[in-house]
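Attaching the record inline, Q. Sequence:
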Amino acid sequence: MPAKKILVIDDDAHLRESLSEVLDLEGFICFEAGNAKSGIDSAKKNNPDVVILDIQLPDSSGFQICQELRKMSREFVLIMMTGRFLSAEEKTQGFSLGADEYLTKPFDIAELCVRIRQLLTRKGK
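Structure, as predicted:
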């Protein structure tokens, strides 16, 4: 079975790089993007199985990117990351736009890996 591709979109370079490093060690192939535009371009080019996306980006909101990415494909797993408490309305908005899961920073990387594998299994990937 070929390795699954994960795209991490976050403007925090340290978090993005450490996340990619750990996911690489877990056997995933990682792509990184520091803003919405490069994230969408990378998704078009690399066709990821999973997108992990920060809700607060300098050039766009995670909700807008979520919508853009879902126009391209319903196939991949989409995990939204946030550094703050989200209201029920915000979470509902994200789920209605196509998010599969939410993570609040800081989170446990091992837990993230388990969640990714579970979501991929559910999507039949």
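The radius of gyration is 13 Å. Residues 5-120 form a domain with the Rossmann fold fold (CATH 3.40.50.2300).

More tomorrow.
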